[in-house]
């Protein structure tokens, strides 16, 4: 097959080969299909653009994930601070109620006795001020416990708002303001963790950032 080198005065913008039929040494004829260099160039450009878009989306997705992690961490820290402030405020309210004898000590004793088996005999030790307040409030009213089975005892070692309950069987129940506030704080903290877990589950199940379809498939 004869080859000829063609020199151009300036680079051509495109080259098109017309269909031609050539004969091989074996006598087999083969048709040469034309090549559209402009179309090839467009496909290459689309391929490069698609790769650039894919890299851009990957970078954007990584940035979004990092921002979401920072936001989640900041939100968790703010929720913890809110819980600490709420517990602190609650403690001030409780102690203010203690100072003005506004604590529902009768409800506190009733709740503790309600946890005992029916007809249990027990002694309940209270701060002397709380016991005096309880006696004054229940002197002319009925109480939800049997006065003959529940003995109320003044104990100066118990802080206001607390109690020490002990049954004949040796069961002991201790309660004070600090422990109750601590239980409330722990419960609120656990609720924060549960909320974070539930929120992550919702995000994992939902669609976030969609990838664009491969432009090579739609071209």
Helix amount, in percent?
40-55%
SS field, number of helical segments: 5
Mean pLDDT: 77
- What structural category arises from helix and sheet content? alpha+beta
The main sheet comes to: 4 strands, mixed
Describe the overall structure:
By secondary structure, the protein is α+β, with helices and mostly antiparallel strands. Helices cover 53% and strands 12% of the residues. It contains five helices and six strands; from the N terminus they run ββααβαβββαα. It has helices at residues 37-99, 105-114, 128-138, 177-205, 215-218; strands spanning 20-23, 29-32, 122-126, 150-154, 163-167, 172-175. A four-stranded mixed beta sheet has the order 4-3-5-6. It has a two-stranded antiparallel ribbon with strand order 1-2. Helix 1 packs antiparallel against helix 4 (177-205). The longest helix is centred in the N-terminal third of the chain and has 63 residues, at 37-99. The model is unreliable at 207-219 (pLDDT under 50).
Blueprint (SSEs and pairs):
Elements: E1 20-23, E2 29-32, H1 37-99, H2 105-114, E3 122-126, H3 128-138, E4 150-154, E5 163-167, E6 172-175, H4 177-205, H5 215-218
Parallel strand pairs: 3-4
Antiparallel strand pairs: 1-2, 3-5, 5-6
């Amino acid at each position: 097959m004869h080859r000829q080198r063609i020199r151009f005065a300036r680079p051509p913008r495109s080259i098109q080969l017309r269909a031609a039929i050539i004969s091989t040494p074996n006598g087999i004829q083969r048709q040469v299909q034309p090549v559209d260099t402009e179309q090839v160039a467009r496909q290459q450009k689309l391929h490069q653009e698609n790769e650039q878009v894919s890299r851009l989306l990957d970078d954007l997705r990584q940035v979004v994930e990092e921002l979401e992690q920072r936001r989640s961490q900041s939100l968790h820290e703010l929720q913890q601070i809110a819980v600490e402030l709420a517990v602190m405020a609650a403690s001030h309210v409780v102690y203010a109620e203690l100072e003005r004898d506004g604590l529902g000590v009768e409800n506190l004793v009733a709740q503790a006795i309600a946890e005992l088996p029916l007809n249990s005999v027990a002694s309940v030790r209270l701060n002397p001020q709380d016991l005096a307040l309880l006696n004054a409030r229940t002197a002319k009213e009925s109480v939800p416990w049997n006065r003959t089975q529940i003995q109320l005892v003044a104990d100066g070692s118990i802080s206001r708002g607390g109690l020490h309950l002990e049954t004949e069987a040796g069961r002991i129940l201790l309660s004070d303001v600090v422990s109750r506030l601590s239980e409330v704080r722990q419960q609120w903290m656990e609720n924060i963790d549960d909320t974070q877990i539930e929120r992550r589950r919702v995000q994992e199940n939902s669609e976030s950032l969609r990838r664009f379809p491969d432009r090579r498939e739609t071209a």
